[in-house]
Design brief:
By secondary structure, the chain is α/β, with parallel strands linked by helices. It contains 14 helices and ten strands. Helix 1 packs across helix 8 and helix 3 runs parallel beside helix 5.
């Protein structure tokens, strides 16, 4: 492991970027934590842990150039639910261009979805566009592709009573197997990728530490909490008004199409990666 290397982490105050930054710091890397708001509580926590916190707007490549200067690696993630689908592509391309200009030697990209085109799911299709741009620049690339984060079941800003516990099973089917991974374990996988570039550059990793249907997840929730998860039966038209169509398209696409459900490869990289039961139990404490 190159313990003296510098890794610039985009979205460092978010779930995935924050997990990556914490794991890399624990492994001895120098971290440049990139965020829109260096004064936020999460940014200050990273600074206290030893990260260099820098203000960056990924839509403005001029802010990325100094952020990537001298960096061995870049962790790249965008959140289209916050920035919008068009800006997601702008941000991703800017990261690629700035990384190539800086001579970055390894980019780890937090993608998502099945990795195939023609799904009609914009947040999945955008990630293929961004990946293709990285590849056109000749950047040494590792792609991480979780299907569903376990935080969807627990975190308030994902509105799980409406989403994962109501509309997702309604549109996808409660009996469809879903590959799950928690954000912290994604951070551990990313750290391993940076530590072993010979093994992971060029890899496209379908990530899952457990495979469970929504019905099984609901039963595990009941076993852990002693009650079923709360549901809020919002009608589809109202959900669309707040979130748009993309999640609805995604869940309908998943209803009729199998996704890879083998978690063995992820557990080989991070043997301690948590099951759904372990994750729910840790959040119940």
């Amino acid at each position: 492991m190159n313990g003296l290397g510098l890794v610039a982490v985009t979205g460092a105050t978010g779930r995935q970027g924050g997990a990556v930054a914490r794991h890399l710091l624990a492994d001895g890397w120098r971290i440049r934590a990139l965020t829109r708001d260096p004064s936020s509580e999460k940014a200050q926590e990273l600074a206290a842990a030893g990260a260099e916190v820098m203000r960056v707007d990924m839509a403005d490549i001029a802010t990325l150039r100094p952020a990537f200067a001298g960096a061995h690696g870049v962790f790249n993630v965008q959140n289209p639910m916050k920035c919008g689908f068009d800006e997601e592509v702008v941000q991703g391309r800017n990261v690629g261009d700035a990384a190539a200009e800086a001579g970055v030697r390894h980019v780890v990209y937090a993608s998502a979805g099945p990795g195939e085109s023609g799904t009609g799911v914009r947040q999945w299709e955008n990630k293929l566009v961004i990946r293709a741009h990285f590849e056109s620049l000749g950047l040494p690339l590792t792609v991480l592709r979780p299907m569903a984060l376990m935080e969807l079941m627990t975190d308030k800003d994902f509105f799980p009573p409406v989403g994962v516990w109501h509309l997702m099973p309604k549109l996808m089917g409660g009996d469809r197997p879903v590959p799950w991974l928690c954000a912290d374990d994604l951070g551990a996988v990313a750290a391993r990728a940076f530590a072993e570039p010979d093994r992971f550059v060029g890899a496209d990793l379908k990530l899952a530490s457990d495979v469970r249907t929504i019905d099984e997840c609901r039963a595990l929730w009941r076993a852990v909490h002693g009650r079923p998860p709360r549901r809020f039966p919002m009608p589809i038209w109202l959900f669309r008004k707040f979130t748009g169509d993309d999640l609805l398209v995604m869940w309908r696409w998943l209803r009729g199409r199998p996704v890879e459900t083998d978690g063995a490869a992820t557990l080989e990289i991070v043997p301690s990666a948590r099951s759904v039961r372990d994750w729910l139990s840790s959040r119940a404490r």
